[in-house]
Specification:
mainly alpha; about 70 residues
Length: about 70
Amino acid sequence: MHTAKKHPEKDALLRHTAPSRQKQAKAYLKGQVPGVMQHYAPDARPDPDQGWVESDETVHRLARWREEAPY
């Protein structure tokens, strides 16, 4: 029989959080949320030599994008 672990602090936080944030938090805790780079650079490909999710070129492109962002 599988019993779910209780996390009172997490449950209390989720009860006091807006429903949209609850959904985001639950998805994040389940590992269903892509990384930041995947969100901002969905066309990024792993570096073939190092195996990282982001190549140096992708990281530099994101840095340039952030510097030029209008916010």
